Amino acid sequence: MFDTLKTFLHQGRQFIPDPSSSKLPVVFPGRPVISSNLCAENCSICHDICPVQAITLRPVTLNTGSCIFCRECEASCPEKKITFSNDFRMASNCSENLAIHQDSQVESLIDPNLVRKEVIRVIGRSLKLRLVSAGSCNGCEWELNASGNVNFDIGRWGIEFVASPRHADGLVVTGAIVENSLEAIRITYEAIPSPKIFVLAGACAIQGGLFKHSPAVKREFLNTYKPDLYLPGCPPHPLSIINGFLSLIEAGKK
Q1: What is the CATH number for 215?
Q2: Total tally of structural domains belonging to the chain
Q3: Contact in structure between 23 and 58 (CB atoms under 8 Å)
Q4: 27 in a structural domain
Q5: pTM across the whole model
Q6: Is pLDDT at 245 greater than 80 in this prediction?
Q7: Strands 127-133 and 159-161: what pairing?
């Protein structure tokens, strides 16, 4: 018993009381920041070095839906035009808002007007989610799982992942959405009772990531079903995941 108490005293408090006041650790890049620094004439280093073509020029814009947060643009830019902060607030319910530019505001990421009326009563209470891996490396699954551990404890807000889609209020998809996963996604989506929400987690799910040009990737499912929430990252940090769901729930109350 005394050994257990010594362990508790040594480890200290495990859970994060208020995730909204937390910051990402230094090793985990957060929301990109586009500075007002002027680029050198005809410079395209950041654009050319980006492995997923997430950066466009004039003006410099970085799409967090595509970004794999490798930080090569930050390291290579002589003018430090692009940097990565420790701000985990990146989730959005609008794909256009995933594009970060110099004047981007965090407050505009979740648009209350885009929250579907029929799902407001679903996201306003306990939220049960079914996860489908559609060609993921399992990085996103690790972080989604970590969001429920003792440190982050997403369950304190009534949000949890369930085994059966018939017990779920929404579908979370990870991975680039490969052809062999389409049937599983469709069956799972249709098995979830309506109304339901649809969430894409991670760069691969949102825009294909490093694999978007692979012949194995078939994303036609997204032409029929529009996501209610995008969780950028490669993978998204548990704080970003929690913030995304809570922001969507809060927007639904407005």
Answers
A1: 3.40.50.12280
A2: 1
A3: no
A4: no
A5: 0.92
A6: yes
A7: parallel
User: If pLDDT is split at 50, 70 and 90, which confidence band does 20 have?
Assistant: confident
Mean pLDDT of 62-83: 95
For residue 53, give both structure tokens: 């073509």
Query: Is 73 within a domain?
Result: no
* Angstrom distance (rounded) from CA 155 to CA 158: 5
Beta strands per DSSP E along the chain: 32-34, 55-56, 61-63, 82-84, 99-100, 127-133, 159-161, 170-174, 197-201, 229-231
Distance CA 47, CA 62 (A): 9
pLDDT score for 18 = 85
What pLDDT sits at residue 136? 94
* Phi, psi dihedral angles at 250 (to 5 degrees): -65, -40
Question: What is the spatial distance between Cα 71 and Cα 55, in angstroms, rounded to a whole number?
Answer: 12
CA distances from 126 to 129, 217, 242 (A): 10, 33, 14
CA distance 186 to 193: 13
Least confident of 39-53, 92-106, 143-157: 92-106
Does 198 map to a domain?
yes
H-state helical runs in 116-237: 120-123, 139-146, 182-191, 203-207, 221-224
Q: Is residue 74 part of a domain?
A: no
The token duo for 145 is 């799982």
Instruction: Tell me the pLDDT tens digit for each residue of 180-225.
Output: 999 999 999 999 999 999 999 999 999 999 999 999 999 999 999 9
Q: Which domain holds residue 162?
A: 112-252
Burial 124-157 (b: 16+ CB within 10 A, else e): eeebbbbbbbbbbbebbbebbeebbeeebbbeee
Phi, psi of 184, deg, nearest 5: -65, -40
Q: Which residue has the tokens 């729930």?
A: 249
